[in-house]
Design a protein that fits this description.
The chain is an alpha+beta fold. It contains two helices and four strands. Strand 1 and strand 2 form a beta hairpin. Helix 1 runs antiparallel to helix 2.
C-alpha cells in the first residue's frame, strides 16, 4: 500500500524526468539545426569543387543585413575557404579539405543526434513506466480513502443525544486589497 507522501514523491520524480526530457528534446532540435547547416555547407563545397573543371566558380555569399557578395573564382586550381580548425582558430584550407572536415564533423554530429534521440526514447519509456506505477498506486490509495471517508460519515450521521443550539452567525468576509476579488484567505 502506498501512502500520500510516496505518491507525491513519485509525482515529483515524473515531473523531474519530464523536465529532463524537454531539455533533451531542445538539444536534439539544436543538433538537427547544426546538421542542416552542415548539409548546406557540404553541398555548396561540392558544387564549388565540381565547378573547377570549368575554370570558373561563382557563388553569392550573404554577409547579413540583406547584403550579398558575389564570389567568383577563376582558374583550374581549387579555391580556399576559411575553416574553424578548433578553439576559435581559423585556417585557410582548399575546398576539398574544407569539404572533408565538414563531412567528418557531420558524421560526429549524426552520432550525437542518434545518441540523444535514443536517450530521449529511453526517458520517454521510463516516464511512461513511472506514470503507470503512479496511476496504479493512486488507484489503490483512492479506495482506502473512500472507505475511511464513508466510515467517518456514518459516525457523524448517528443522532446525538443532545442537539446543540446554533446561533445564527453572520459570515464575515475579509476585504481584499484588490477590491471585491477573492483571495486564498477567503
Amino acid at each position: 500500500m502506498v501512502d500520500r507522501s510516496e505518491l507525491q514523491k513519485m509525482a515529483r520524480t515524473i515531473d523531474a524526468h519530464r523536465q529532463q526530457l524537454d531539455t533533451l528534446h531542445a538539444r536534439v532540435q539544436q543538433v538537427s539545426t547544426i546538421l542542416e547547416e552542415h548539409d548546406i555547407t557540404s553541398s555548396i563545397l561540392e558544387q564549388l569543387i565540381k565547378s573547377i573543371s570549368t575554370g570558373r566558380a561563382g557563388a553569392r555569399l550573404s554577409i547579413g543585413s540583406g547584403v550579398t557578395l558575389n564570389y567568383i573564382h577563376e582558374g583550374e586550381t581549387e579555391g580556399t575557404a576559411m575553416v574553424d580548425i578548433g578553439s576559435g582558430v581559423f585556417g585557410e584550407k582548399p575546398w576539398s579539405e574544407a569539404h572533408s572536415l565538414t563531412a567528418e564533423r557531420q558524421q560526429g554530429i549524426v552520432l550525437l543526434h542518434k545518441e540523444l534521440t535514443e536517450q530521449s526514447k529511453q526517458l520517454e519509456e521510463k516516464i511512461t513506466e513511472l506514470a503507470q506505477e503512479f496511476n496504479a498506486a493512486a488507484e489503490q490509495l483512492q479506495p482506502a480513502q473512500s472507505a475511511e471517508a464513508n466510515a467517518s460519515a456514518t459516525e457523524e450521521s448517528k443522532p446525538q443525544s443532545q442537539p446543540e443550539e446554533k446561533s445564527p452567525r453572520r459570515q464575515q468576509r475579509r476585504g481584499s486589497r484588490f477590491g471585491n476579488e477573492l483571495t486564498l484567505d477567503d
